[in-house]
Design goal:
eight-stranded antiparallel β-sheet; 3 domains; globular; Rossmann fold; seven-stranded antiparallel β-sheet
Length: 599
């Protein structure tokens, strides 16, 4: 849940390290630090707080070393503090490293090192690794690294430097992202592609247990058996401008307004002659499966709920929806006749990755839905479908969510085609989604007005039925994430079974009613809240809703299955404006990180 950078090249390391950390701050922002190899030895500068505080601190130093590492942290072991900040060094300050992930057996290893006379200065699991390197080092840092990775358990991306071998960086990964870039006169590494783009688009993707040795003008790759291997150099299709705000106040607002474009890109080439085309999946006979599992976390889980609902409706095969963090502990019934679909924006979500590996071990066919080219989940799955959201910098997901919805709906219709089901009306309407989303974005003032109702609220209640329930789950999550308003989402029909006790004069209820076959029932439930004094914000596709809600937004009318995509826009904007009104940091909500690479 941290961001790491590394540089070995002809020029100073610090400029790359800092610009990379600025692009990775969405991965963690409770502390930051850098280490460079100077003529006098290792020089480490780090501090608690945002990257801006590190930048200020660095003004008192003159770091000119050509080899260095950087880190921005989201705390897992130990509170945010100077001592718990990365990089971590050994006692005589000859070895330094940065780490993303969690060392699960760190307590056992720490006790062992204490018995050997080592002293710890932090509460982190990462310090164990640098002291283990010190313990095993006997003149060859690569050999010491080999011994260390045989001992540590858990997830890690490590970048290691030492004054003993000052011209190189050793990097190694397991279950945590790490990408290496080839530049003119340097090799660099980082947790995510945006950190590299100012310097290069040519990258290498490391697989688990693989090691790379970065020098100014050479790179060596080794497999888990420490045998030299070759890796393919890949040119990524992103540009640096995609990671900038383009004049918007925040990344979140920019990414909300990018949705017409990224939806268009996700649809591009996938609808031809009234047929859904997903060439990546043409080798799969979907009729062989007797059940389907959708597995994901957070926002991706809400997209999966929608995709699962639609797929089951279309093909009449049992479809299960599972939270990835629970999946492997529930002993799911999986075999070779099971299709498992794993959804992750980053493609590095630790729980989802673990669930995928469990499914593969039981013989299931696996499909990944991811946004990041070359991510671990996309490489480990049997098949992969990419959304085309581009880099998403704000911690709260917006455009990644809607492109997931679009791709999962495309997938459901693609599978349905094998079962002889074709909905030409919905396929035609899919093509018009970017225009419809653009139209909704034009009504931004309405959503800012709705959000003003939340300014002094501690709680908000979201209700909906069927697919609308999946929408309000995501709406409530978005509001919680960025505004810190407590928000719950309920199946509207369940209000009378308990939650309606919370409704009182002045309560805010955000209701979604877009599914024609149950809209009337939802309207009745909404009326029950109005009768108890609630102020209702209604999002519907009915031009004449049968209730008296002062705050109503009417969506463009499309097939019910596609309404989940349109509904997302008002809910995102209301969350955004509610957070703005309350003065919250919209792009970097407290306690959250963008890419959840630990359990």
């Amino acid at each position: 849940m941290c961001g790491i950078t590394a540089f070995s090249g002809k020029g100073p390391a610090l400029p790359f390290l800092m610009q990379g950390l600025s692009k990775l701050e969405y991965r963690g922002y409770d502390s930051a630090g850098v280490t460079t190899i100077e003529n006098s030895g290792l020089k480490t500068v780090k501090c608690k707080g945002r990257l801006a505080q590190l930048e200020t601190k660095l003004e008192d130093y003159h770091l000119e070393g050509h080899v260095g590492i950087g880190h921005t942290r989201w705390a897992t072991h130990g509170i945010p503090s100077h001592l718990n900040s990365h990089p971590h060094t050994n006692g005589d300050e000859t070895i330094s490293l940065v780490h993303n992930g969690i060392i699960e057996n760190y307590k056992e290893l720490k006790d062992e090192l204490l018995e050997h006379g080592y002293h710890f200065h932090s509460e982190t699991d990462s310090e164990v690794v640098v002291l283990l390197l010190d313990y095993y080092y006997q003149g060859d840092m690569l050999e010491a690294t080999r011994k260390v990775i045989e001992r540590i358990e858990g997830s890690y991306a490590l970048c290691i430097i030492t004054t003993h071998e000052p011209d190189q960086i050793i990097v190694v990964k397991k279950d945590s992202p790490l990408i290496i870039g080839k530049c003119d006169g340097a090799y660099v590494a980082a947790s995510d592609i945006p950190a590299l783009l100012e310097y290069t688009k040519d990258v290498y993707f490391l697989d688990d247990y693989e090691i790379a040795v970065l020098k100014t003008d050479s790179i060596t790759f080794l497999n888990k058996n420490f045998r030299t291997i070759k890796k393919e150099l890949v040119t990524v299709p992103y540009d640096l401008e995609a990671a900038k705000k383009d004049g918007y106040d925040t990344f979140m607002l920019k990414e909300i307004f990018e949705q017409p474009h990224v939806i268009q890109e996700t649809l591009r080439g996938r609808i031809q002659d009234e047929t859904i085309k997903l060439d990546e999946l043409d080798n799969i006979d979907f009729k062989q499966f007797n059940k389907v599992h959708f597995v994901a976390c957070g926002t991706a889980y809400h997209a999966s709920l929608c995709g699962a609902h639609i797929l089951e409706h279309l093909i009449k095969v049992p479809v299960f929806k599972d939270v990835a963090s629970e999946y492997r502990y529930n002993d799911p019934v999986i075999d070779e006749k099971t299709l498992c679909i794993f959804v992750s924006q980053s493609g590095e979500t630790a729980d989802t990755l673990a669930a995928l590996r469990l499914a593969k071990s039981k013989g299931a066919t696996t499909i990944a839905v991811a946004n990041v080219l070359g991510s671990t989940i996309s490489r480990d799955a049997d098949y992969v479908l990419y959304t085309c959201a581009g880099p998403e910098i704000a911690v709260a997901s917006t455009k990644a969510y809607t492109t997931q919805l679009v791709l999962l709906i495309l997938f459901a219709y693609y599978v349905a085609q094998q079962f002889g089901h074709v909905d030409l009306k919905a396929i035609h309407e899919l093509k018009d989604l970017p225009n419809l989303v653009q139209k909704i974005l034009g009504d931004i003032d309405s959503f800012e007005q709705f959000a003003s109702l939340l300014e002094h609220q501690r709680d908000a209640y979201f209700i909906g039925r069927g697919l609308d329930y999946t929408s309000v789950l995501e709406g409530a999550l978005k509001l919680k994430e960025v505004s810190y308003i407590h928000a719950d989402a309920y199946v509207a029909g369940e209000l009378k079974h308990g939650p309606i006790a919370l409704i009182e004069e002045g309560s805010i209820v955000i209701a979604v009613a877009t599914q024609p076959h149950i809209a009337a029932k939802t309207m009745s439930n909404i009326q029950e809240t109005i009768a108890r004094g609630a102020e209702v914000i209604l999002i519907t596709n009915s031009l004449n809703p049968p209730i008296d809600a002062r705050y109503t937004y009417v969506l463009p009318y499309v097939s019910p299955i596609l309404q989940t995509i349109l509904v997302a826009i008002p809910l995102q904007l209301m969350a955004y404006f509610a957070a703005n009104i309350k003065g919250c940091d919209v792009d970097k909500p407290r306690n959250l990180a963008k890419s959840v690479t630990v359990e």
